[in-house]
Design brief:
Elements: E1 9-14, E2 17-22, E3 44-46, E4 57-59, E5 63-70, H1 74-85, H2 90-124, E6 143-147, E7 152-157, E8 161-166, E9 171-176, E10 193-197
Antiparallel strand pairs: 1-2, 2-5, 3-4, 5-10, 6-7, 6-10, 8-9
Amino acid sequence: MRPEALGQRFTWQSDDRTVTLMLPERPDDFVGSDEPEVREVPAWVHTGRIEGSGDAVAVQIIGVDVEFSGSLSASDKERAKEAEAAGDDEPFREFAHQAQGLWEQGHEVAERAAHGWLSHVRVVSGQPWLGIAVESPPQYGRSHIFDVDADVRLMSYGPLQSASIRSGGTGAVPRSAGRDQRAGGVGGGAAGGRVAAR
């Protein structure tokens, strides 16, 4: 890809969702500073080129944001955390269940957007031997669901998980690593509102 394309953003509507696909501007774009366990991969690197074709970069990571209306807010999270601190785990379990449902909606749209972009790039890149099929892109690090109005991360999801063993229970219980980060500052906000999956 030509270096002048770096940093571009493409925004469109998909049903009732606003989708934004972002190309990295700097090599360290899209690297989560709160994810030290994730191997750092540069978002783009300089690459070889055919003589006379100009500079080129290989984009390794793109970002996709999906914004839509949802039924959860930062204040809902705060209430669930307060109940949990008082010994009642049920409100947080319900909050996490609802957050995951919203995240799955946004994540599905984000995967389709990234897959579509990669398919398009393969076709228009002048490399017909690659064909038009492309595998779905893997997720890099964790993705998050935010209360956009309050600018608060509600939950994080991704490949990093741990297991808790509870005696007398059903055995191993997968737990999102993002749940352990819920103690960050939470501001107020109206019930429901704009939610973004990133």
